[in-house]
Amino acid sequence: MKRVQQFTAIIERGGNGYVSLCPELDIASQGNSVEEAKNNLIEALQLFFEVADSLEIQNRLHTEVFVTRLEVAIG
């Protein structure tokens, strides 16, 4: 039975499409819409876990990732 684990997805506009990034594993993808970029990132993560050995996963995995907003004075 496959186990399910949650990961972070950061999606931003990039040119005419969207770029998606999983910061825990430094894996990225893209798509023409937010939903497509998200789904393509999920596929990229699934493919990574299919081919990566446990040592590679352990070396790439960042277990503490924090996403927050910052307030910065400009000018």
UniProtKB/TrEMBL annotation:
Coiled-coil regions listed in the entry: none
UniProt xrefs under Gene3D superfamilies: 3.30.160.250
Alphabetical list of InterPro entries matching this protein: TA_system_antitoxin (IPR051404), TTHA1013/TTHA0281-like (IPR035069)
Source taxon at top rank: Bacteria
This protein's name: Type II toxin-antitoxin system HicB family antitoxin
Organism field: Myxacorys almedinensis A
Upper lineage: Bacteria, Bacillati, Cyanobacteriota, Cyanophyceae, Leptolyngbyales
